[in-house]
């Protein structure tokens, strides 16, 4: 019987892998054909929309089933089972459930569904809410545009396109609720169905990521082509098309700021779903010990001492933030004047100078943090896989984007143009800073105060506070200004071509933005956790 279940678990993992590869291949091929094929694209667009509809509806049905199963089948009143340690069962295969595991081994109770998984940090949960709001607003703008196009007869919009937009909006809302509330869920019943459901949710988010990178790149490319072909040609708008033109203008202006939210949201959601997929079939060992709950006195004392040994870093961070806001204001003023003679290049000087200043401040802060935190105790156990995956994903995006920029600038550095030299310096600093900061986050996540002297002195905490604020400043800069600065620099398009450069920027800039947000979240966790004396960590399991 055990071998039979082991074989079933192995087959389910293999089939899930094949299914994910097939769907991911379709998610890459269909949007590419629809976006860049020669001739009429209506049929390919229909295929893509039908594929999207399949992804969204299947995901929604599974989420609703899972939520109905949790609420209906199990007691809706949460019963605390104390502190537990999650343990993966090795006999018979990965996460496999065997007959011996399903018995009351060492007094453990098999829970069909429980909330004892690793989950994500509270900062990432807030990030999911933030990015989902941006995603919903982005989809809402497009749905409004479709509605006005239908009413004003500006363009033929199929009912399928509107349906896909509405279903995508519904999927985003339901998935956000699930990730925020059930990110620690572990399913121990109907294992094959559970694995297929969660792998489908993961692949759906990855396909959305690919779809939006391709669609946004093609839209920008064809918009540039239309602008070039229609230069010098006057266009008359009647009253029926004024509403369409207005909402299209709003959507186009908001897209550079909202579109990265879609990609960042789907990166986090895909990572969470893959983690839940890996925990399917994991059983808790129930212990009698209750988790410690801090008293009101302890909570207030912790708040009063929360910024201890961080004042210098916080005030230096405030200075960096003020300079960043002033520089951004100057940048946007000069950018608005970029169409006039003599202003084509001036707006890049304050932008690149601001980037160099913030990168230098963060580079100094991260070096000081690593140096001072080296004396803290080093824990051998590895922390959550979701955070590591997300950090490496953002780091990869930062490397790829900056390497492409650096290669293009090295081809023209001989011109000794001021803006190009400043951009090359900021690119070089960005690669170094990302490398050291990623190492600092991985290393700092395992650091813990070892004695009373460390608790009192809190080495490196002030530098961590400065580094945290610098990453928030870089997140604001890269969200508001990086895409504009890159798209209006002709050096990159001259080397790579218009379309390849659009694809590079649309794929890497959201990852760079996400890297800064996720780094700030991880640094905040290190800043608050590394200086607390080590205690026996307990994970609370909740039966639904």
From TrEMBL:
Show the GO cellular component annotation of the record. plasma membrane
Keyword Membrane in annotation:
yes
List the membrane topology term(s).
Multi-pass membrane protein
Q: Which GO terms describe its molecular function?
A: proton channel activity
Keywords for the protein's UniProt record, in alphabetical order: Cell membrane, Hydrogen ion transport, Ion channel, Ion transport, Membrane, Signal, Transmembrane, Transmembrane helix, Transport
TM spans, by residue?
51-71, 123-141, 161-180, 192-215, 257-277, 312-333, 345-368, 389-414, 420-442, 463-481, 501-518
Q: Where does it reside?
A: Cell membrane
So which domain of life are we looking at?
Eukaryota
Just give the chief location class. Answer: membrane
- Cite a single Pfam family from the UniProt record: Otopetrin
The signal peptide, as residue positions, is 1-35
User: Which family does this protein fall into?
Assistant: Belongs to the otopetrin family.
What is the name attached to this protein's record? Otopetrin-2
UniProt source species: Lingula anatina (Brachiopod)
